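Hey, can you fold this one?
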Amino acid sequence: MVEAPHIPVLLEQVLDSFSKSRDGYIVDCTLGYAGHSSRLLSSLPNISIVGIDRDDEALEFSTRRLSDDSDRVTFYKGTFSDTISIVTQEPIVGVLADFGVSSLQLDKLDRGFSFDSQELDMRMDRDASLTAYDVVNSYSEDRLVYILSEYGEIPQADKLAREIIKSRTTKPIESGVELSDIARKVLYAGGKIHPATLMFQAIRIEVNDELGEIERLLDALESMKPSGAIVSLITFHSLEDRLVKNRFKRWTQRCICDPDAMRCTCSRDHNIGKIVTKKPLIATQEQIRANPRSRSAKLRVFRFADE
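Sure. Predicted structure:
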């Protein structure tokens, strides 16, 4: 079996969440380099994997890596929010998503995700039209301020947007190196994280519509309600975690009447499952030492009700 070039985050916690899964399919919505899926296949002989990814390089790698279990794996290329609704394999007994950017995407300079990259791309799907170059060099100042404040939660978003506009009037901003240099001029450089981290996060979210993808995945799952299925979702920042936390909470609400209503008229039977993890699971110190990027990972688990 081909080994993955990175360590999957919260691997033991993910395996534990699916440990009691019955015969059927687990949909890995963010297959990546199959770190989670390869272990699920070896740990759970009763399950098969449906692997979804929009990155051709990841799909090619995972096809090789999982070749020994090819009869138990089906691959789909596409966004997980669109693809999960056309999956025909059944029963679906689990859904997994790791919303982080894969290590290879971050580390390969030609993908344009890195502060040291000579590219400015950030597309998870290289067939997509919008790139980080387009965002940085063509978006209006108001739109840049919105992205930097909403997706990066950067207090100095307006100042940073003005500096980007100023820089690009001289010449286009063409690389991650140039963009990170702009962040250094404007943002505080102390602390453990690079001053450009939140700016790159915000632009990457915009390029790949990452929050919209999560919302649409949750919408699709809410429509599907796969009987008894476990849903394990890994987030990496507060924006993602809030979406998942709030949706899981909504799925457990029995009453959907207006809070100001005098009495309940909805029959109080609208909950569709239960939250398995009252608090998100986080990485152990050992896991963080093995993979520092797991430091910010949070796993929330939900179980749909049996029909």
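The chain has two domains: 11-98+210-304, 105-208. Let me know if you want another pass with a different chain boundary.
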